[in-house]
Specification:
single chain, about 475 residues, mainly alpha, 18 helices, about 70% helix, globular, transmembrane helix, membrane
């Protein structure tokens, strides 16, 4: 369907696609989260301006919210109808664009802005987790920048008389996700995946009194959009860039660091909540047994874990701390990220149907299914990328440290980063936490821990090998 100047040969296509496909997978996951969120919030009545007005009123009255966010809430209160409908419209639009992989940078940008607004207005609520909407926003921001940097350049005939221009529609359609899978095979696997999603949505209890309808609509909508995205592959073009694999690796690294930062924050918050004590850990696991919506065999396994909390608590604590450090400084990339993905998957499954309120209370709405499931899927994508990347090189040095992170940064820039981190460290040590709330304290402690880790990240990069020389 395309002339020879706009496509690559078969071997080149597979190579180029294998790098950009990782970002396309993350785009698919982010889009699915957007679509499911809007459908469930609509059926729960949360898209109604009255419901959102109540959220803003609670935000204005609370003492936990920063003054800036409260000022924004006061400003938007008279425009609550426009804000509510516009916010959910842009979340849904972002989901459609991301699943179809049309205008990916714009769709990711819509998602980032919408989720930041949603996070700012809801994170102080009693049934919210600090990273519930913040982590999807951060993933969307990284995807927006990365997909824009990998968008194929449009060549004008005047610039290259011997070449044909790349049509605008091919630039807008994004990259091909799975060129080796036929349309019928893709449809089959989409149906399988949507069936799994349907079961997950049911277990999550998202949808209130319309759980079945919300689960069905969400899974069918995501499946239809995913099938349509495969149909659009016939009009897509592979980005003709020799640096695509290197660029994708850098963005995957940024996704990994983002997850590591979130994990460091969570370790501190769990410690402040006394969940990393034997009794606190046992109480937490027992709450999942009592209020969770997982199968009986799994709840029995959790009950056994609670009985042996003195063994499992220190194991989980040591692993989470070690994994967070390794993900920030980017060592042991594929084993650590894949093992952490396994932990996230277990935690996601465990928390299906449980509220974010502690201690859990019956009758309260359950947590959003994608609040940890999305991190699990992004982490899985990063782990698989590192695994396949490591298999290309038979080098223990590369498996341990990976490729250089700051390949294009000069020594002067690295020194400037050291100075910047040093200044930030002085500020953080001189200023105490502005609040005794667990979230604020956890942020403060996480920031104190992250600066030395970024020092280590820069120092380790000196001994890392250049991927182009392997």
């Amino acid at each position: 369907m395309h002339n020879s100047s706009q496509t690559l040969d078969t071997s080149q296509t597979k190579t180029a696609t294998s790098s950009t496909a990782w970002l396309a997978m993350i785009s698919l996951f982010l889009g699915a989260a957007c679509v499911q969120l809007v459908i469930t919030r609509y059926l729960n009545g949360e898209v109604a301006p009255q419901a959102f007005a109540a959220t803003l009123e609670q935000l204005i009255r609370t003492e936990k919210a920063p003054a800036t966010i409260q000022s924004l809430a006061i400003f938007f209160t008279p425009h609550i109808t426009s804000l509510t409908y516009s916010l959910h419209f842009f979340i849904l639009l972002a989901g459609v664009l991301l699943i179809l992989r049309i205008l990916m940078p714009l769709g990711a940008l819509f998602m980032f802005v919408s989720f930041i607004v949603l996070w700012g207005f809801t994170y102080t609520g009693e049934n919210s987790w600090f990273f519930e909407f913040l982590s999807p926003a951060l993933y969307a921001l990284v995807l927006a920048v990365s997909s824009y940097s990998l968008t194929p350049n449009i060549q004008k005939p005047s610039d290259h008389p011997s070449s044909h221009p790349t049509p605008y529609y091919q630039r807008l359609l994004g990259g091909i996700l799975a060129p080796d899978i036929s349309f019928l095979s893709w449809c089959f696997w989409v149906i399988v995946a949507s069936s799994v999603l349907f079961a997950i949505f049911l277990m999550s209890r998202n949808g209130g009194n319309h759980i079945l309808l919300a689960s069905l609509l969400s899974s069918i909508t995501i499946a239809v959009l995913a099938i349509l995205s495969k149909f659009l592959d016939r009009y897509r073009v592979v980005a003709q860039t020799q640096q695509s694999n290197l660029l994708v690796g850098r963005w995957i690294n940024l996704f990994t660091i983002t997850i590591g930062v979130m994990l460091i924050f969570q370790v501190y918050e769990d410690s402040l909540l006394n969940w990393f004590t034997v009794e606190g850990y046992r109480g937490l696991v027992n709450s999942y047994v009592e209020y969770g919506n997982t199968p009986l065999w799994f709840r029995n396994a959790l009950a056994w874990v609670a009985e042996h909390a003195n063994i499992f608590m220190p194991i989980q604590r040591v692993f989470e701390v070690s994994a967070a450090i390794c993900m920030v400084i980017l060592v042991f990339r594929f084993p650590i990220v894949l093992l952490t993905t396994g932990l996230f998957a277990i935690l996601s499954f465990t928390e299906f149907g449980v509220t974010n309120i502690w201690p859990p209370a019956p009758g309260k709405p359950p947590a959003w299914v994608f609040e940890l499931l999305l991190t699990t899927l992004v982490s899985l994508t990063c782990g698989l990328y590192y695994l396949f990347d490591a298999l290309k090189y038979k080098s223990w040095h590369y498996w341990l440290l990976g490729s250089k992170v700051f390949e294009s940064i000069s020594n002067l820039d690295k020194r400037l980063l050291f100075v910047l981190f040093f200044i930030l460290e002085i500020i953080l040590f001189s200023e105490g936490a502005i609040s005794k709330e667990n979230d604020i304290l956890a942020l403060h402690f996480a920031a104190l821990a992250l600066i030395p880790l970024f020092y280590i990240l820069i120092l380790i990069d000196i001994v890392r090998k250049d991927i182009t020389k392997l």
